[in-house]
Design goal:
- There is one protein chain.
- The chain is an alpha+beta fold.
- The chain has three domains: 1-105, no CATH class; 106-241, Sandwich (Jelly Rolls); 250-322, 3-Layer(bab) Sandwich (Phage tail protein beta-alpha-beta fold), CATH 3.55.50.
- It has ten helices and 18 strands.
- It has helices at 11-25, 32-44, 46-62, 67-74, 85-96, 98-101, 241-244, 259-267, 279-282, 296-305; strands at 114-120, 126-129, 135-138, 142-148, 153-165, 174-178, 181-185, 189-194, 198-205, 207-211, 217-220, 223-228, 237-238, 251-258, 274-276, 285-291, 308-312, 318-322.
- Strands 1, 2, 3, 4, 5, 6, 7, 8, 9, 10, 11, 12 and 13 form a 13-stranded mixed beta sheet that branches. A three-stranded mixed beta sheet has the order 15-18-17. A two-stranded antiparallel sheet has the order 14-16.
- A hairpin with a 5-residue loop joins β17 and β18.
- α1 (11-25) packs across α3 (46-62).
- The radius of gyration is 22 Å and the shape is globular.
């Protein structure tokens, strides 16, 4: 395995590639195959992820620069010749760095305000760097709203699921609001999923405090809980953090999970919902691994694993029934 940060392909080429990928990531929709190529590029060397995270943090900080100033910075001198497209991506990335020189990068302890809203559409996952160094990974069909000020860092999970990697800052707690619950941390890594009738919290590293409408619950690494629609927080239970966050690498991992939960999860990645025919079918247990970009593989494999069949309904959706 290659060591540290020395990329054999050259730092300038890495920065050019990172700038090019970063521009593509700003598009409202990114094709699944292109997202896979991006993730494969990220995995090639640690330096690739470092460059993308740097650009994401700088891009977030650019929101703090007045619009007129940004336009002036992006205006090329009249005497300069037109540059090749690849170099223009690199130049654009360099211009973003001016925000750091202006002292407008919102690092830890900065009193500048920051706000933003981010979404991942159907079939998409997004990796979002925040001005304080924290990172949000958004799952498919998910949306968050971010609001920072000098006293606190607040995120509202409007829908879907997100993995938060939070930079430590005791002076400014990081709070995630989802449904009828709230999760508060100073620095940790945890996953929050908001469903129609409940919110799930799972801690991968560090610790969090989960507050509903009752007594708060503290979670440490390897523990999770649920908050129901009435704001009641469940007793903490052991979780498999790697399995719950496998969606970041394009996988769905199920370990003795009820088929009802499997179907609910898989439906997030299908244009048409998947349904369960009866409570008895929903209680069947499944252990397997599937690819997010190929949810149909579940339907093909399921009748060979469990005593069920799959039928297509008139509206084009599919239902799993007893065989």
């Amino acid at each position: 395995m290659m060591d540290s940060r020395e990329c054999p392909c050259g730092q300038d080429r890495v920065r050019d590639a990172a700038a090019q990928w970063f521009v593509r990531l700003q598009a409202p929709v990114m094709a699944v195959d292109e997202r896979q190529r991006f993730e494969a590029w990220l995995a090639e060397h640690p330096n690739h992820r470092d460059e993308i995270q740097l650009l994401q943090g700088i891009w977030s900080a650019a929101d703090l620069v007045p619009k007129a100033r940004l336009q002036a910075l992006c205006e090329p001198p009249a005497e300069r010749p037109r540059r090749r497209p690849l170099l223009r991506y690199a130049v654009a990335a360099g211009l973003l760095a001016v925000t750091v020189g202006l002292g407008l990068f919102s690092g830890l302890g900065d009193s500048s305000d920051y706000s933003g809203e981010f979404a991942a559409v159907f079939g998409e996952r997004r990796h979002i760097g925040l001005p304080d160094g924290s990172v949000i990974d958004l799952n498919s069909r998910s949306r968050v709203r971010v609001q920072f000020d000098a006293q606190q860092r607040r995120v509202a999970l409007i829908e879907g699921e997100a993995l938060f990697s939070v930079e430590h800052d005791t002076a400014r707690p990081f709070t995630v609001e989802a449904g009828s619950g709230r999760v508060t941390v100073t620095g940790t890594r945890f996953d929050v999923r908001r469903d129609a009738d409940s919110t799930r919290v799972a801690v991968e590293r560090g610790s969090v405090r989960v507050q509903g409408r009752d007594v708060p619950v503290d979670l440490s690494a390897g523990l999770g809980t649920r908050i129901d629609a009435q704001g009641k927080v469940a007793v903490p239970y052991a979780i498999n953090a790697d399995a719950l966050t496998a969606w970041r690498t394009g996988k769905l991992v199920f370990n003795n999970a009820p088929l009802s939960e499997v179907v609910e999860e898989v439906s997030r990645y299908r244009a048409k919902p998947l349904r369960i025919g009866s409570a008895a079918v929903g209680s069947l247990r499944l252990s397997s691994v599937f690819r997010i970009d190929d949810p149909e593989s579940l339907l093909k494999a399921l009748p060979n694993i469990l005593p069920v069949a799959v039928r297509t309904l008139d509206d084009g959706s599919q239902e799993i029934i007893a065989r």
